[in-house]
Automatic annotation (TrEMBL), chain A:
Identification of the protein by name: Tryptophan--tRNA ligase, cytoplasmic
Top-level division of the source organism's lineage: Eukaryota
Organism from which the protein derives: Salvia divinorum
InterPro entries listed in its UniProt record: aa-tRNA-synth_I_CS (IPR001412), aa-tRNA-synth_Ic (IPR002305), Rossmann-like_a/b/a_fold (IPR014729), Trp-tRNA-ligase (IPR002306)
Membership in a protein family: Belongs to the class-I aminoacyl-tRNA synthetase family.
UniProtKB/TrEMBL annotation, chain B:
Pfam family, one: tRNA_edit
Protein name stated in the entry: YbaK/aminoacyl-tRNA synthetase-associated domain-containing protein
Residue ranges of domain YbaK/aminoacyl-tRNA synthetase-associated in the record: 24-151
Biased composition (Basic and acidic residues): 197-209
Family: Belongs to the PRORSD1 family.
Source lineage: Eukaryota, Viridiplantae, Streptophyta, Embryophyta, Tracheophyta
Native species: Salvia divinorum (Maria pastora)
Gene3D superfamilies documented for this protein: YbaK/aminoacyl-tRNA synthetase-associated domain
């Protein structure tokens, strides 16, 4: 079968475009094969639970974060008493954040708390300025606004450094950017990212910017003298190309390769084949949605895997493969037992879609409420504190 | 709370004040405003928001053509040369509750502007009507002196018309002629209540940082009658402000959430029957499970807020004077 498919029909997964094979879903097994990363198996999850003396995060248990590179090495080092730091980021292209945007941050917060390690968060305002043709001021403004929602996810200010490219690039960070850039030929970067002769040089020179935070010397105010500190990067799997490039460069610069822990894509309300887009407010649940909005969106737009009539549903059960409410519960319903119960009851047809949607509405409303409350507590001064270039003396405690 | 443009217009109508209103795109300068209402009946005004060295504020409203010399004005007010300057941007929002480019006598309707002094160009008196912004830059309203006075009197301000271009000498034997227009009362502090809270909780932080709210382990499952409601502590806590580093509020909230869960667990009829001796363990386990996440979230907000307050104090810290 694989031999019959030609190049154009393959799924596309790049930092700027994600598209499944015609009319289908993303095939994650194929992706892992193609990219060359590893599956995150149960033994690793158990190991995390053991090392952190806490239950593993719901995203690990449900396979949301499902792939990795060198995560086992990070855990080996951790067991020996060698710490690491976390690095994640966001491209601030819009003010409105939806639940899909929160997923990597929720997971990163868990990692920060469970392993008690510091975190750097990069806001690529320069990237969005270039790719989305925003003005410099607008992208900087969005970066600060997004920072507030990110902080609201519950990061610990005494171990977190948030920075925007426009503010921070220079000094040691820039030195690393140049060193990285020297190791990547133009042809290579075109091959990895698909740039063309028409793309401006800003785009072509961007990848080292996203690579540089993987090296501790980019943050002399934090990690001075700790050149052998490992880096773990939680991200969505479409970011893998950046870090394949970075991992290739790292040994040549004398650093550990950054480790990765990667998530699958968050489905749009309309289903796996639908596209989540900032321009369609009904394709996602936003952190600014009211309880009423959430209820409406789920009831009206969430793609249901239930049958078209009650009799058929009782007979055949729901198609859990495509049912969005059930998938969303997989992400956000903490209780494994309850989820299992819904899986059997809904899958067999004893439970109806309405009930599943109702439960999802409760879960999401609670989540969004908590986020909104936390967001209300974030002041501009708090953003300044998180973004200040300052030492973090207790970052490993 | 700040008065809105709509509330102002309603108030003017209630006072039977005659005015014409024109909507236009947001304008930040007199020139821009002129593009939209320059041809309409009414003279354009320029409005300055000034501040003196003793934190007293003034609005100077003049016809667009009137020359206003701040040095002269400062002397006439008895503040010496260079005693007034343009007020900082934050004062616009904190005191007048208007955006940039929107200084207007109408802003005095706000409580926070109670002690702002208003100087009006006596040139207005000879105009049929003149334009001001009504609290937002996307509208201009034309009003005459008589009706403007009516409005000012309604908010307790005596209209003061001044020849702004006059340059009387000020010195021995010639007292500053506008001295009476300097606000006499201590100005209303522009700091919102939150800032007062912050300084209070900064002291409290020393003790609170050590106390880890240990709820899960310590919470004994209570018999329904036992839980006594804690009164809100001293009146020092300003209930209208929101500060997330208030230790009292923090603890109150934790106790409130714990109480709610304990009570709901105990009140479940089948729980009491079913579990009896194990009720204690069951309830305290549930408390841990349900509350743990919520309390951790509360605690991180508290920590981040306290750190931010300390950080801000740190960057404004002045070195010890020798």
């Amino acid at each position: 079968m694989a031999a019959e498919k030609n190049e154009e029909e393959e799924q596309i997964v790049t930092p700027w475009e994600v598209a499944a094979e015609k009319g289908g879903k993303i095939d994650y097994d194929k992706l892992i094969d193609k990219f060359g990363c590893q599956r995150l198996d149960q033994s690793l999850i158990d190991r995390v639970a053991r090392l952190t003396a806490a239950p593993p995060h719901v995203f690990l248990r449900r396979g949301v974060f499902f792939a990795h590179r060198d995560f086992n090495q990070v855990l080996d080092a951790y067991e020996r008493g060698e710490k690491f730091y976390l690095y994640t980021g966001r491209g601030p292209s819009s003010e409105a954040l939806h639940l899909g945007h929160l997923v990597p941050f929720m997971f990163t917060k868990y990692l920060q708390d469970a392993f008690k390690v510091p975190l750097v968060i990069q806001l690529t305002d320069d990237e969005k300025c270039m790719w989305k043709n925003l003005t410099v001021e607008e992208s900087q403004r969005l970066a600060r606004e997004n920072a507030k929602d990110i902080i609201a996810c519950g990061f610990d200010v005494s171990r977190t450094f948030i920075f925007s490219d426009f503010d921070y690039i220079g000094g040691s960070f820039y030195k690393n950017m140049v060193k990285i850039a020297q190791c990547v030929t133009y042809n290579k970067v075109v091959g990895i990212f698909g740039f063309s002769g028409e793309d401006h040089i800003g785009k072509v020179s961007f990848p080292p910017i996203q690579a540089a935070p993987s090296f501790p010397s980019s943050f002399p105010h934090l990690f001075s003298g700790k050149d052998s500190l490992r880096c773990l990067i939680p991200c969505a799997i479409d970011q893998d190309p950046y870090f394949r490039m970075t991992r290739d460069v790292a040994p040549r610069l004398g650093y550990h390769k950054p480790a990765l822990i990667e998530s699958s894509f968050f489905p749009a309300l309309q289903g796996e084949t639908g596209k989540m887009s900032a321009s369609d407010p009904n394709s996602a649940i936003y952190v600014t949605d009211s309880a009423k909005d959430i209820k409406n969106k789920i009831n009206r737009y969430a793609f249901s895997g239930g049958q078209d009539s009650v009799e058929n549903h009782r007979k055949f059960g729901a198609n859990l493969e495509v049912d969005i409410p059930f998938k969303y519960l997989g992400f956000f319903l903490e209780d494994d037992n309850e989820l299992e119960h819904i899986r059997t009851e809904y899958g067999s047809g004893r439970m109806l879609t309405g009930e599943v949607k109702k439960r999802l509405t409760e879960v999401l409303t609670e989540l969004v409420e908590r986020h909104r409350r936390a967001r209300a507590a974030v002041t501009d001064e708090m953003v300044d504190a998180f973004m200040a270039i300052r030492p973090l003396p207790n970052m490993f405690n | 709370m700040a008065i809105t443009k709509e509330q102002l217009l309603t108030r003017l109508q209630e006072l039977q004040i005659v005015f014409s209103k024109y909507e236009h795109p947001v304008v930040l300068t007199v020139e821009a405003q002129a593009k939209y209402v320059g041809n309409m009946k009414g003279a354009l005004s320029k409005n300055l928001f000034l501040k003196d060295k003793k934190q007293r504020y003034y609005i100077v409203s003049a016809l667009a053509d009137t020359k206003v010399d701040l040095k002269v004005l400062s002397q006439r007010l008895g503040l010496g040369k260079g005693g007034v300057r343009m007020a900082p941007e934050e004062a616009l929002s904190e005191i007048l509750h208007v955006p940039l480019g929107c200084v207007t006598p109408f802003a005095l309707v706000n409580e926070s502007a109670r002690h702002v002094s208003l100087l009006l160009d006596n040139g207005f008196k000879s105009q049929e009507c003149f334009f001001f912004h009504p609290l937002s830059n996307d509208m201009s309203i034309a009003i005459n002196a008589h009706d403007l006075d009516k409005f000012l009197i309604s908010i307790g301000k005596a209209p003061a018309y001044v020849d702004l271009e006059a340059t009387p000498t000020v010195g021995k034997g010639q007292p500053p002629d506008l001295a009476s227009l300097v606000p006499s009362d201590a100005p209303v502090s522009a700091d919102p209540p939150v800032k007062q809270e912050s300084s209070k909780s900064l002291e409290k932080n020393h003790t609170s940082a050590d106390k880890q709210p240990v709820i899960a382990a310590g919470a004994k499952p209570a018999k329904p009658s036992k839980t006594s409601t804690k009164e809100k502590p001293s009146g020092a806590v300003n209930t209208s402000s929101i500060t997330y580093a208030d230790t009292n509020k923090f603890v109150e909230e934790i106790l409130e959430k714990t109480r709610t869960i304990v009570l709901s667990e105990i009140k479940e009829d089948d729980n009491i029957e079913k579990y009896r001796e194990q009720l204690a363990t069951i309830v305290s386990n549930n408390i841990s499970k349900q509350l743990s996440m919520e309390l951790k979230n509360l605690a991180i907000i508290f920590k981040n807020t306290a750190y931010t307050e300390g950080f801000k104090a740190g960057i404004h810290h002045q070195p010890k004077r020798m």
